UniProtKB/TrEMBL annotation:
Similarity field: Belongs to the LEA type 2 family.
UniProt-listed Gene3D superfamilies: 2.60.40.1820
Species: Corallococcus coralloides (strain ATCC 25202 / DSM 2259 / NBRC 100086 / M2) (Myxococcus coralloides)
The UniProt record lists the keyword 4Fe-4S: no
Presence of keyword Signal: yes
Protein name: Water stress and hypersensitive response domain-containing protein
């Protein structure tokens, strides 16, 4: 047999052996590797204020194999109330647990002014509708497996804190005026923390303008928590005759505060009116 023909037959036989080995290996992998599962877990708010919030869509990948996997690719889009927003995505190469579950988080910053022309209109909603779409690629021994990210649902819209007067206390009364301490209770109606940069407004007692109140920065309100602040104000009787009568006699009087509550960069109108009992 000529040398060239013999060499060709040897190479051909080697290639068949290699292909056969690859096929056997692939068959072994197909039998041993179990396909992971991906499921949606929750939509949660993070870093929420009355101006914006981060919405985290949380997925869970269950890898039943003893081999750890990696995130290969992400193609992702996020919509709120039908409007597409810029959304973050996990970095490619993210390590995923072997024989266990890994959380994969897709964050999106939602500026409420981008959703509704009047932010207070949006804040009056209990929940906002979202839609996520795209694919997630996981690197496996069998190649990249693609998982759909299609999901529709809702997330809670931050609620404006509740503000209430407590019983004011008259600390000093003279012929010309009185010093009154006005306690305010600010309650976070959300289960998550909410920043309150301050409350300011014009105060009336018994229909008379008596001055302005300002809380200063109240910091972070705990989820479902209440913060109390006491604001002293000196009232001049000469410019507030009806208030003078109410304060001199004690008892009940109508108190109103018209102003704004500010959270982060967003101010919302505050109109508070209560019948309160003045104590000495």
């Amino acid at each position: 047999m000529p040398m060239k023909k013999r060499a060709f037959l040897v190479l051909f036989a080697l290639s068949l052996t290699t292909l056969s080995g690859c096929a056997a290996l692939q068959s072994l992998l197909n039998g041993a590797f179990k396909k992971p599962t991906l499921k949606f877990k929750t939509a949660r708010l993070a870093n929420a204020s009355l101006s914006d919030a981060t919405v985290d869509l949380v997925y869970e990948l269950d890898n039943p194999n003893s081999l750890g996997l990696k995130l290969a690719s992400v193609d992702y889009a996020f919509f709120v109330e039908g409007k597409q927003l810029v959304a973050g995505k996990p970095k490619e190469g993210l390590n995923l647990k072997s024989n266990g579950k890994s959380q994969i988080v897709f964050p999106a910053n939602v500026k409420f002014a981008d959703i509704a022309p009047v932010v207070t209109t949006f804040l009056d909603k209990d929940a906002a509708a979202f839609r996520a779409q795209g694919t997630l690629g996981i690197q496996t021994p069998l190649g990249v497996l693609k998982f759909p990210l299609e999901k529709e649902g809702t997330f809670p819209v931050p609620k404006i804190p509740q503000v209430q007067f407590q019983a004011p206390r008259i600390t000093n009364v003279t012929l010309s005026g009185a010093t009154v301490e006005f306690p305010l209770a600010i309650t976070n109606r959300n289960a998550f923390p909410l920043p309150v940069a301050g409350i300011t407004g014009a105060l009336k007692v018994a229909g008379a303008n008596v001055g302005n109140l300002s809380t200063g920065n109240l910091g972070m309100l705990d989820g479902s928590g209440t913060k109390q602040v006491t604001l002293p104000l000196t009232i001049n009787f000469a410019s507030a005759a009806s208030a003078a009568m109410a304060l001199r006699s004690g008892g009940n009087a109508q108190v109103s505060l018209t102003g704004n509550l500010t959270s982060d960069a967003q101010s919302v109108p505050l109109n508070l009116s209560q019948l309160v009992n003045f104590t000495k």
